[in-house]
Design brief:
Layout (H helix, E strand, L loop, with lengths): L44 E2 L7 E2 L2 H26 L11 H11 L1 H11 L12 E9 L10 E10 L1 H4 L3 H16 L4 E9 L2 E9 L13 H10 L8 E4 L2 E4 L1
Parallel strand pairs: 3-5
Antiparallel strand pairs: 1-2, 3-4, 5-6, 7-8
Helix pairs in contact: 3-6
Length: 248
Amino acid sequence: MAAVYAQPAAANYFTAPAHAPQKQRGYRICDQCGAVEQPHLGRFRLCGGCMTTQYCSQDCQKAHWPSHKPICQHTASQVSSAKHQPGHGAMDEHLVKNLRKFVSAHCSLLGWAGFQALQLKRLPSNIRQNALIVELSYRPSSSDPLRRFSIKATHVVPRSYVTDNDLLVAQDILRREERCRKSGGIGCAVVLVQCGDISQVMPVEVDSPARISWDAREDWQQVLQHFVESGRTDFKPISTTPRGIVYG
């Protein structure tokens, strides 16, 4: 029997925000120093390899290269492989960039979904055993950038499905896990967002359950689909605390 809840899983679940979401186009952030692009002063430069990372200057690009190089080459090879597979000659050139923007816009929602799917409130040890896969469908013709993807399916799989197939990703997850545990967390939840042959791994560093007030929810799939399909990024999960119901 499906669980019945007295409260929705997130704030504004039934009501869209009164204000329009901020447009992301034209507002780039330097991946080295964090400066925000000011179009009237000059455009930021894109990395020529991955065509997604941006910098305010050549100096910042050079300074960031040692740490950016592995993931840059990995992204470029992933795109190249997808293009050369049979039947992918007409693959949308902007798919990788749009997928990255999607993950960034919905990072809070995806992290919460991973927490719920792996049942980390009740079984923290699942963080080392399982991962969440979110399959997307792509609508490149949509005029709304936040509605170019929809949820196709979700799966909980063994974590080795992700880490055993990509040494670079496995090393990055391990580095984040060590950092998280040193600060009192339980490790790194793995969420794989996939659209066709293109995918992005989203590692989520998780605090100990005692420090997380989120309610455990079995309706996380419906919540995930609801916010993605409506193109909303104002997700604020419910928490039941001694002070009452809190969203955020």
